[in-house]
Design goal:
12 helices; 2 domains; single chain; Helicase, Ruva Protein, domain 3; Rossmann fold
């Protein structure tokens, strides 16, 4: 099953904390579906651009699942070499200071909770196949604990790598072995209605964290600039831009000049000014 705007139907009200994160119907609909999925125990693939909130969705699934009292363990799949893979994913017996110690594996640390394979699409095909083969053998056998420790898997995929992966033979294997539900997360530029509410939430968050930011706000022009920017780094980039604005405005009114200069490149007024 693929969750996207086309597969969604009208649902009941969302929990308040989620409702106040988004105004776009697109995201509200996706969250309705995500909350339903959380209650099932299927494996999940979350596909989206960098910084678009994949991990945030995975945590919401965890919080609303029957595994919520067990750990949410995240394994970062970028730049994983043989040693990282052995030590941090599977773990092994280790001889340290004359003692044989057990290095805990990602799987054991998950303890039957949710194992989030962060940016799984960046993992070397060799390790991807190794994980899939292990699932084939029966994931329980990977445990030193008992078979109630099987994790629910949530895999995140970067949009670009995902497109490459769909053309490879691994993709078929992955679908067959994991039988996952796929969540397609839209980039921020396709749900611009969410930008003002996200900015507002970030400002409130920074106000709470810093006593000196009691008066923090954003000017209409800066808000307009944010609304018109394409945000290739999505929510993370937006958050960082507002943080920079908060710092450069000394916790007062964030103006356009306080936002990262790179944003100016695709602002309409800048392009017009550059015309001769
Ligand atoms: N709904 C939201 N409201 C507020 N902040 C959010 C929301 N979703 C994500 N964020 C923030 O945006 C940043 C990026 O989110 P997250 O790590 O979930 O994205 P990602 O898609 O998993 O990133 P990556 O592609 O790097 O793995 C984090 O700082 C996170 O706290």
């Amino acid at each position: 099953m693929i969750v996207s705007k086309n597969t969604l139907k009208t649902q009941n009200a969302l929990p308040k904390d989620i409702e106040k994160s988004f105004t776009s119907l697109l995201m509200q609909d996706i969250y309705h579906k995500v909350l339903q999925l959380a209650k099932l125990d299927s494996n999940i693939l979350i596909i989206g651009e960098i910084g678009s909130g994949k991990k945030n969705i995975a945590k919401i699934i965890h919080q609303n699942s029957k595994r919520s009292t067990k750990p949410f363990y995240s394994f970062y799949c970028v730049d994983v070499n043989e040693d990282d893979y052995q030590d941090n994913f599977w773990g092994h017996l280790n001889f340290e200071e004359r003692q044989l110690t057990l290095k805990y594996k990602a799987l054991e640390q998950t303890q039957g909770g949710i194992l989030y394979l962060d940016q799984f699409s960046e993992l070397s095909p060799k390790y991807m196949l190794n994980i899939l083969a292990s699932i084939d053998k029966g994931i329980n056998q990977l445990y030193r604990l008992d078979n109630t420790s099987s994790p629910r898997l949530i895999l995140s995929f970067n949009q670009e790598s995902y497109q490459d992966l769909t053309n490879s033979s691994i993709w078929e294997k992955l679908l067959v072995k994991l039988d996952p539900v796929v969540i397609m997360l839209p980039p921020l530029r396709e749900r611009k209605e969410d930008i003002p509410i996200l900015i507002n939430n970030f400002i409130e968050e920074f106000k709470e964290q810093n006593e000196g930011y009691k008066n923090l706000n954003i000017s209409p022009q800066a808000l307009y600039n944010c609304f018109n920017y394409s945000w290739p780094g999505n929510i993370r980039q937006l958050k960082n831009a507002i943080l920079q604005g908060a710092i450069l405005s000394f916790g007062e009114t964030i103006k356009s000049e306080h936002l990262p200069f790179t944003m100016n490149w695709d602002l309409p007024y800048k392009l017009n000014n550059n015309k001769i």
